[in-house]
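RETRY 2/3 - previous attempt timed out on the joint model. Re-submitting the same 848-residue input unchanged.
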Amino acid sequence: MKTSALSVLGRRTGPPPISWLMQTALSRPKLISLAAGFTDSPTLPIDISRGVLNRILRSPKTGRPALQYGITTGETNLRRLTARHLQKLDAAGVTSQSHSWKQVMITGGSQQLLYMALEALCDEGDLVLVEDPTYFVFLSILQSRGIRARGVRLERDGPDLAHLETVLQRLKKSGELPRLKAFYLISYFQNPTGVTTRFEKKRGILKLLKQFERAAGHPIYLMEDAAYRELRFNGPDIPSALMVPGGAGRVIYTGTYSKPYAPGTRVGFGLLPEPLFTSVQRIKGNHDFGTANLLQQLLAGVLETGLYDRHVAKIERRYGRKARVMKQALTKHFPPNVEIWESGGGLYFWARLPRNISTGVKSKVFQAALKNNVLYVPGELCYADDPARRKPDHEMRISFGSASEENIREGIKRLGAVLRKFLL
Amino acid sequence: MKTSALSVLGRRTGPPPISWLMQTALSRPKLISLAAGFTDSPTLPIDISRGVLNRILRSPKTGRPALQYGITTGETNLRRLTARHLQKLDAAGVTSQSHSWKQVMITGGSQQLLYMALEALCDEGDLVLVEDPTYFVFLSILQSRGIRARGVRLERDGPDLAHLETVLQRLKKSGELPRLKAFYLISYFQNPTGVTTRFEKKRGILKLLKQFERAAGHPIYLMEDAAYRELRFNGPDIPSALMVPGGAGRVIYTGTYSKPYAPGTRVGFGLLPEPLFTSVQRIKGNHDFGTANLLQQLLAGVLETGLYDRHVAKIERRYGRKARVMKQALTKHFPPNVEIWESGGGLYFWARLPRNISTGVKSKVFQAALKNNVLYVPGELCYADDPARRKPDHEMRISFGSASEENIREGIKRLGAVLRKFLL
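RETRY 2/3 succeeded.
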């Protein structure tokens, strides 16, 4: 008799690649973690949240609905506020068809939306294109669900369109195009590289995907993950792919209030075209029939009072300062043959070592860093299993999100010392 | 070209059977809904919640962690409190191996745990046993994921063990036993019938499942859904299946703070044996990497201050009163040839009409009730698609959860008038 009755999915779902890193960080108090994607703790909006929650819970009229069941797709008020918020970010005008509140769904972080969208779209063996590199938890979902990923080369201003076309041509030639369902793009201050995709490239991606739809036999969606969009401290905001003319029917836009407001509230959202919206709505009915109402009311409260915008402005300054501190430390301590991709937002810088120097968990660099009490995310964890190329393993994601300025300086100093030993 | 790129799951997932009922209720303000499984609004703990949230968010020391990311399996404190809570309910003693906090996972309602447990256990085509009738959202998950259900006859004190054995024998004979993964049992004040399963029957179920494991070739789990356990106003509490000697390794226990405390906080939990715990933990990492910390801290706060127990005592009295009001109204207004299953807890009574009278959505009874502005849940929605029997459609679930006492009286009066027309 087998000792386990697990399903294929149950057996296949691996441990999160980063869990070991997290545990290591927790078990070594002297360690400075530049690995975690946590947000800055001192600026978390405890006063704002207390105020708004007090207001909601002070009267039965607002308090009771907040503690009662709600609607699977989310509270109408928060969906409207979210649509308006996106219209504003995109300078889209309130009548924009592609920004209708009726296509907005409120979820448990944008993570839940990514999961459900993949459930709605992909069967085992289907294909999804991802940036090379990309968000490792997204790769975990793909792995768990038996969905195959193909990497599209990433340039400093977004995916390499010529390479995207090559990949699509290759899939067409091999007859695999009918399995291709979507391109997953983290369009703002990407995790892990910090890259922001130019609007022209979003247009180009949608155009290319459309060209190959006939051969695919069905729509190919652009999943635009905008989780870091509002953590922007440098440069202008860029319209989302919803603004590409004719693109709305093919764009799944996911965003979150977790990162700009508070991860502990875990409220995210997505804008989905039909028939995806309906399918994901039904799936959410089975997952949890709706995200916690109390949190939705909290977010609606901070949005409609303008407290949200003020808070976002505050943390943008904060992350801007931390990013500058990291940049200065990198200039001072890192060897000159490490290429740094700095970002105008988000939580991460990306460091590229010479190709012959490995940064993986078992590498000398990683082990020496650990010994020196500093932690980063090895770049290799962010690459999909793609038979078309070897996984690069000479990069690192370094985060300025949760570490204090002092720890950023000290962490980069420690990491620099390690790198100098191997690179100079 | 197909207009949709949806997956098999995406296409298969149906609308929730009850969504139409909900919409009907919302769109007709004069309608009295005895259909919804909502909880009693006036007793929702708005003051308690405000107090505890204020305390948490007053100081950075407790406020910041509540607004930051947490751990995928849930906050250690809440997991410990939950284990202790279950030990107390089960009178198990704090050293009970089957009640270890390390097997406790905190989830977005117990619904999310049910979903993930099925993901971890069942492939498409696998089999799950359910009570006949059972919780319709559980049936929706099965349908969505292509899992087949087989019904086990329900008696007033739990599943019919002789019938369970027959079903197992039949599966063994047809060679389908290797596809059987679990028996889903709503053991306390069952949805929809209000039935509570005797402890001896839990023991009997586990024994029978064990007997057939060798032929199945793997463990067969008992999923004990205890969502309504703490809404008890009559009779003693009954130990959970975790208390069956030797049963712990086969019991998935799911519970929730949503119903006894507040649905708007959507915090549930489960106790899972290995290797299920690890598998579900990884799956949750992909779903949302952890339920909102703020809500977990809120629940931990109300649990450790004793406010939770006091609140539960209060709503038990409240539901007890509502149930008595419903019972009186039923006695007064329902024809004598309707069999009423009353319950010592939960939110529901179950009414069984003569077999030749249909109660389904398209039936004369349902349409007349609707015309009379009263809504119930047709019993047929609660039966699995099981080729072994015709779906009974002569029953109704009537809820005293959210309606006021006045509306319970008036709703039952209206429903009684309809029934008298068809039954007398």
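The longest strand of chain A covers residues 148-155. Closing ticket.
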